[in-house]
Each structure stands twice: as C-alpha cells, then as structure tokens.
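Q: For a teaching session next week I want to show students how multiple molecules come together into a single three-dimensional assembly. I've collected the sequence lines for a complex. Could you give me the predicted structure tokens for the whole thing so I can convert them for display?
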Amino acid sequence: MELNGVQIEDTFAEAFPIKIARVLITGATKKWALVAAQEATGFGTSVIMCPAEAGIEKVVTGDETPDGRPGAYIQICTFGYKALEEQLLKRLGQCVLTAPTAAMWNGLPKAEKQFDTGFKLKFFGDGFESETNIGGRKAYKIPMMQGDFVAEHNIGAQDAVAGGNFFIMAENQMAALAAAENAVDAIALLDGTITPFPGGIVASGSKVGSINYSKFMKATTNEKFSPSIKAKIKDTLVPADVKAIFEIVINGLSVEDISRSMKAGIHAAVTVPGVKKITAGNYGGTLGPFKFHLKDMI
Amino acid sequence: MELNGVQIEDTFAEAFPIKIARVLITGATKKWALVAAQEATGFGTSVIMCPAEAGIEKVVTGDETPDGRPGAYIQICTFGYKALEEQLLKRLGQCVLTAPTAAMWNGLPKAEKQFDTGFKLKFFGDGFESETNIGGRKAYKIPMMQGDFVAEHNIGAQDAVAGGNFFIMAENQMAALAAAENAVDAIALLDGTITPFPGGIVASGSKVGSINYSKFMKATTNEKFSPSIKAKIKDTLVPADVKAIFEIVINGLSVEDISRSMKAGIHAAVTVPGVKKITAGNYGGTLGPFKFHLKDMI
Amino acid sequence: MELNGVQIEDTFAEAFPIKIARVLITGATKKWALVAAQEATGFGTSVIMCPAEAGIEKVVTGDETPDGRPGAYIQICTFGYKALEEQLLKRLGQCVLTAPTAAMWNGLPKAEKQFDTGFKLKFFGDGFESETNIGGRKAYKIPMMQGDFVAEHNIGAQDAVAGGNFFIMAENQMAALAAAENAVDAIALLDGTITPFPGGIVASGSKVGSINYSKFMKATTNEKFSPSIKAKIKDTLVPADVKAIFEIVINGLSVEDISRSMKAGIHAAVTVPGVKKITAGNYGGTLGPFKFHLKDMI
Amino acid sequence: MELNGVQIEDTFAEAFPIKIARVLITGATKKWALVAAQEATGFGTSVIMCPAEAGIEKVVTGDETPDGRPGAYIQICTFGYKALEEQLLKRLGQCVLTAPTAAMWNGLPKAEKQFDTGFKLKFFGDGFESETNIGGRKAYKIPMMQGDFVAEHNIGAQDAVAGGNFFIMAENQMAALAAAENAVDAIALLDGTITPFPGGIVASGSKVGSINYSKFMKATTNEKFSPSIKAKIKDTLVPADVKAIFEIVINGLSVEDISRSMKAGIHAAVTVPGVKKITAGNYGGTLGPFKFHLKDMI
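A: Of course. Below is the structure for the complete assembly, covering every listed component.
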C-alpha cells in the first residue's frame, strides 16, 4: 500500500485498556490555560516509570467552557481508578490550583465514574471557601493570593484505550522528526486523544523484555528497529534507505477517537519529504484487545 | 523603601535546605532541547505533593555543551538524596531518553555527590549499547529507533536552597500577572536558579497549617494575603489598593544565586504599571536558616 | 447594556470599503507556513503609511489545502486593485517564494477578480520552471536552492470591508492588554477576518485631522480617549475608572465576517478582570457606509 | 576542509555596503517588545522588491534599556540615507507607535548620522505631547489611548555591511532546514547582525541576471545550485548526495560582527545530522568589497 508515495505496511497497532480522567482547564487567556495544562501533564509519558500518562487533548474557546474563558482539555491515564484519583488530587492540586488564573472543570460530566477532586481541593480554602454554580456546574471558590480559584466538584473518568501508535521511517532523523511534528500538530486539533510523549513523539520505541538483561529489565530498546545497529542485527526490520524512526503513541477515550487521530497523523506525516515508510507496533495480538489496521487509515 | 515608585517592604524571604541535581539536556535544535526539558520538569512545583520540584534553569548555545548542540540546564530538587536518585532515573529515563534528539549530560561534574544515572539507563540498550567519550565526558551510546541516545555516566547533585521568594501586589490580577511574567523572564536568563511553579508563578501562596481543618490539612491558603476576602479578615495584610498577589518561588544552587535572581525579578516586576508593593514570605525565621532581605535587593 | 458585568456602549463601529486579496500559504509544518505568513504580512498595519494592511486570517490543516500540507490564509488589503497587484507581487515574491518550504495558493479561487501573480513569479525560474496541476489548481514548479517552489497561477481578490473595530477600556494597561490579547486569540480562529495591527492590537487609536498641527497632520491622537491627559480635556470620553484603552481593528471579506469576529472578540474581552467598558469608533456615519452596532454583538 | 565531519568549501562570501539604522524597542514584557519588533521588520527580506531589509538583532533585559523594561534591537537597512529616513518614519510610526506598550529608543546613540524620527513622530500627539528625559535620553511622551507612547528624539544610522552568507547543503530538505534553524538560533544571540529573510532563512538563493529572461529579469534562480534540476544542468554545483540547500544571509554593523555570526551559524549548522557541505555565495569579487573566507570560520 502507498499513501502520497510512501509505503504503508499492511500491519496493525495493538492497544490495551486504561482508565482516563479528563479535565478542562480554563485561564484568563489561552496562554495561561496552556501553562497550567502543561505543568499538570508533565512527567507523564509512560506508566512504566511515570506516575501517570498525561497530555493536552485540545484547546477550546470560551464558547465551549463553563466560565466563558479559553481552555484546554487534558487527559490523565493510569491502569486503575485508585491510582487515577491520587494522580488527579496531586496534579490538579499542585499544578492547576497553583497556576496563575487557572480554573478546573469536569471534562467528562456524563461519565459514570466521578471523583470528588474539586470537593477535596476546596479544603485548601481553610474554611474561607464557598460553594458556587457557574455555567450549571457545582463548584467551589477558594480564596487565594491571586484572587479566587474555581474548582468543579467532580472530575469524571472512564474506561479508555492506550497505546495506539504508528512508526514514521525516514531517510534521516530530521525528516522523520519533521514528519512526526506534523503528525502531532494534526492530532492536537482532534477530540478525544493525547500523544503523551515529549512533544508528542517517542524516540525510543521499545520491546517487552530483554535479550541480555532479562533478569532486571522489563522493557528494552527494540533492536530490530534500531537504524544505527542494523548491520549487526540479522533480522533487522529497518529498510535499507531508512536511518531514523519516530513513533507516535496515542491514548484516547475510544477506539474511534484513536482511529481518527492515527489517520490524521499518518496523512500529515507522509507529506514531508524524506519519509519512506509507515508501520505500526504490535505484539502479534498478545498484548491488548484493540487492533488498529493501517489499511483502514488510508 | 521604594523602587521605581513601588513600595518595597522591609522584610525578608525565608528559605530552607534542599538537594538539587542538575542536568544539561541537549537537542538537535533549541526547540527540541526545550521539549525534553519541559517534559522532564513537569508535575514538579512543590514537594508537598509532587514527587520533586523541578524547572528549567537556562538555555545555552552549542559553545557551552559537550556535543556542540544547543541545550538547557534543568534542576530537580528533593529533600534527600535517595528520593533524588529515584527521580533522576525516572524523569531522565522516561522524559529525556524518550525525547526526540535529546542527550543528557552532567550539570554538576565537579560536585562531590554523583549518581550513575547514565550508567543505569544504558541497560535500556539491551547489550547493544557502547561506551564513548564526547567532549571529555564518559558517556554511553544507546541504539534506539531514532538513532543513538547519548547519556553521560554521572549526574551530579549538591546541597542547595529552596523557597527564595517575593510577592508582587498589584491593582488587579492582570497587572500582577504581567509583572510576574516579566520577573520570570528576567530570572530565566540567570545561572543557578529555577522558578518551579507553573509558568514560574505561584497563584496560591500558602501558610503552614490550618485554622479550620487542622486535623488533616498541613498547608492551606494564606487568608491574610487573600484579596477577595480581605473585608472579612481582621488582620489582613492586603493593602487597600491591591486586588491580586502573585508569588515567585526560587530554588537555586547557592544563596548568591537566589539573591541575584530575586534582585533581577523584583527589578523586572516594578516596571509594570499597576504594581503597588513588593513583599516576601517568611515564618519569622522558624522555618529555614536562609534569609533574603528585600532591602538588599534594591 | 452589559455583558458579563461590563458596560457596552450603545454605539457603532464605522467601516469603509477596501480591496482584499487572499492567499493560502502552505509549509512543511504549521511552523513554517506561519513563518512565511508572518513575513509576508509584516509592515502592514494601516494604509496611512504602510504599503498595505495585512494579516494572518487563520490556520488550516492539510485536509483543507491543495498539497495536503498545513497552511495559513493571509489577507492583503489596499484601496485599489493596482496597488493590490503590486503588493501581491512584492510580498509573495519576496516573503513567500523566499521562505523555507512555503507554497502559495489562491485563497479566493471563485472571485471575479484574479491576478496572475503566480504566472509572473514563475519567471524567477529562468526557463527551468514547469507547469503543473496540484489538487486541481494550475500552478508552477520553480526550481530553487531548497528544491521546488510551487505557485498557483492566479490569486483572487474582491471588494471587502476595513475598519471594523471596538475599544476595550480597563482599570489599567495590563488588564486592557490581556483582554485585547484574548479578543485577538478568539478572532484568529474565525474565517474571513484579520486584525492587522501589531499582535492584532492598536495602542494609538486616532482621530482624522488635527487641532494644533492641521497644516501637516492628517491623523493625530484621539485626545478625548487618552487616559493620561483626561484631566486636561474638557470633553474627555475616558470614564473615571479607566486608565488604558486598546482598540481592535478588523478587516474582512464581508460584513458578516466582521460582525462575527467583533462579537467573538467582545465576548472574549469582557471575561478578563479589570475591563470596565466596551465602545467603538465612528465618525458619525460620515466615513464609511458600514455600521456595526454593539447592541447586535451581545 | 572539514568541521564536525562536514565538508567546508574553500571559498568566500561576498558582501557589499549598505546603510543600517538601529532601534531599540522596549515593551511591558519581552513578548510585547517582540510583537512590535516583528511587525516593524516584516516585509523586509531583500531590497530587490521590499522597501527595506530588516530584522530583529537580539533581545535584551531591562538592565540594558533606558526605561528598565525588556527590549529588542532591530535593524533597518537601505542603500541610501534618504530611503532609510523614510522607512524609519513609516515603520516606527506605523508598527511601533501603534504597538501595545512599546517604546522606541536610539540604537546607535554615538553614530555620526542621526535622524530626528522621534521628534517627527511626536506631532501625532497633536500638541498634547511633552518632552521628557528617561535614562539620559531626550524623548517625548505622546498621549494615546493606551496611555503614553515614549519616543526618543534621535535614531542613529551608519555605514554597514549586507550580504554576508553561507549555504547549507544537506541530504534532504528537512535536514537542511533544521540546520538552518539551528544556525539562525545561534546568530540571534549575537550583537550587531540580523538575518532578514523569513525565519532567517533563504529558500531561493539567486543569481544576478538571467539566461532566458534577460530582458526583464534582474535576478533569477541559481540553477547551478538547484537540486531538483541537477540532472539537466551540465555545470551543476549540487553534490551528488545533496537534495536541498538553504542560504543564511546576514547583514550587520561591521565586518567583525558578520564574521562572528557566520562562524557561529556554521558551527551550529554542522551539528545537525544529514548536513553534507557548507559553501558560500560570491560573484568572484565583482559585487562587493567585503570577503568572508570560510577557512577563517573553522
């Protein structure tokens, strides 16, 4: 298969279940909403060693927010609801409540699962806080040095999907990187998904387990996809004309959301000169129940 | 005292000891060095509920880096070295090793305390890694999908200072915020310090303990500095003409570094119209051994 | 009238006819499309002394562009078509043809008025250029040092509207400025309009003519709206609680486009604390045939 | 010659005399200083068809500005002083006086040539303006809607140098572009120089005159350096492994300034993977009196 002259491998991305909480952060301007969103989603690339996977889903205007101010949806992802509630408390309490002009709103008000994170954070007000209702949302006004912080009572969460992905293989590192940046820019405009790695891009796609350090390493470099050692790897999967590969990992609220984002990302990536091939990561179907076939993306 | 027509209170900021590790992250361009630095220092505002305090210290050109590429120094801060080593492993392993084009270097090569974080991360290479020497630094090349990741063997750490601070009091929130932004921009150019809160700014300056929720809250809003309730607080410290206060919190490698940054930040803040007063946070000298007198800043 | 607690004056903005050419600039990534768009629209605030009024209308994804790459629509405005054609040649030839990875496309392919700017620019190819068809658009490939530059044959233009506006009056300069930034961010997402002044904002709203320098000045400061001298101006229009005013000037393809953008901008501005009043600039209906009543914006 | 494994051709860049005016623009924050600087230097890539060449030289902190606010130096370049004065009046009057929070200061106070641009702009104040002295500079306060605009009386200019340059040749377009971006970032930190093209980068390096359209084209594509047609050009200068070339053009106050910036830019460019060769543009010494030998840059 080909798209815009770039080979698309007939394979699939394999993804697995996760829990996602979704928060809408608003600010006095778009800039300040994003400052809070960025701090709250940092140190959040992979649950292997980060306390959560997290990212900014999309920016919205005041037309779509309870307080009429610009905002950004973020997603925070963990394997279980207990860890998720803890992460919400910590990340919203330390990175949104503390952020200039930010307010926090429930990003999944219709979800069955609701955490009373706003209620818990109101105790920072030390008795000076008050209940309020803004845009139909039950919330708290917490007096602080900057003025009031507004926190909605509940933050919703739901079953979701992690690990949607595709690989961008290119002539060299800068071509692969520009294509990855283009893909992330396109995905950033879409509903329901995040790309949790730095700048939305994974430099270090890994395999489960280890050949040489199996006693203590659970995940190691994917040597079959490592261009700098392809001459040494008999069953290398790096094409002859490829010197760099970046992976885009996508988490999202639904299979449909991830499909849409994979499709947009792949279409954006193949427009960049020097891109040679798109493929995806899977474990033969042993890892997760969700399969995203690249043939459906073109 | 006055500076540029703004009242400077004759008080002091009180700071306390912390451990700081310092890492130099380089990238193919300044943008990509900053992408890694930002992810690695996110969710890092306050050790109250974040796993570390962290921030970007300053940007450097290729003249000042082992691999000749542009870079950014980051600082990661915890109360003890054990937690610091764990944070280095997690934050560098998950947010720098994974980041496009990033490399990691020792930011304190002369410090007595050295962690072999680079050595530990090399095992991600699964036996395909190799030792190298770049710019006089012992390092590892770890083959990955993007190409090689380079990690210096050691990352240094030292005794340092946390909690340098000043408060910007202004006519209204946007004046206080522009002044705070200006202060953070000025501090960002200086050696040795970080401003770990979102955008470098604290919206929610707190007091130790609680009046009404003392059984379960260790830190709560500083109601005496809360403009929206000043009419209700008998001993309010909010001046009559002030409606918003932002705090700049500064961690740094030395007392001198923090002094320099406080001075630069205060001078930058008072140029913004609408700023009325600068003061600082202290606990009467009971919290920490370091005092930064505002009279020395003007 | 009030909106979000801010007084809206019952007045109108007065606008006048202009000619607008609209160009779609694409690039390898969103960043590079914007680099070209920014250069091409600079030195373009007011036809009083700039060769054109110009601005970036909106950013679009590859789904909406002939070459599948991300892009930005720009508008270039002059009073007549002759000046407009000259500006197109100069600005596209010097700021888009020269810009890394940029391509130029007709932003008004259905307009009656079409300039063959792409055809004229092809001669830069010195005979090595060739005709092509991309996405149904007749275009030229011009070989250059970076590779080929692609220019569509025609660029369309039409009768349009300039000078839609509103004034943001606030407690102080930083509040007015944050509100103006918020308004410009909101308008930047909408079709059909630009805000040609620096950052989209006018600091220096003027009046036609002059009191004291009428022999040589055609436009001078609007002293009735100047806060710093309001004590000296008998018929000052600066409210007692206002210390700063910014104006947003909007050009656009149609009356409807400008109405939509004024409405969005005003709604965004009034959410910022410290904003006291919104009004608009007119000359009693003597200047232009287009009236935008603020009462229709709320 | 080689630098970091990249071939450096033993050739020289040829530059020619120009006149440069230098202006310091300050703003309430770094962001707003840059907004004004960007507007004032737009549509300013080449004097072939732009009214001036212009660019941002460097950003400075409040320590280095008359009003203690952050700022940016810009340069405006034309062949003669008459055109330069006109450009100063138009660009500062339309793009700085109109810009939120901006002020303008003399960037060459010791130059022999001084234009009274600030004096001329004060008449916008319509008699309400007043003379002032800030940081030892004679200036005017012009009351406007935002508050006062401050303009220094004089703006200095001097004989200077235009057309310093180097070419970055790379495996493909994205590698050449990342190297060019890196070079521009490095040069942006240095005194005395600007890179006037879009994003600092030239996509369309040209030759003087024309082969096929000599009757009406004074400058056309440099077909010997055009990778997409190299198979057709007998005496092509595009190396076999090169598919894209970007040029960095540098104007500056002195030969030394340009030398320093060329050196920094070349060193930054060669760190990017995929870069194959650095060369420079000259006309055999017939165009200008200034020669910059690449062998002196390594």
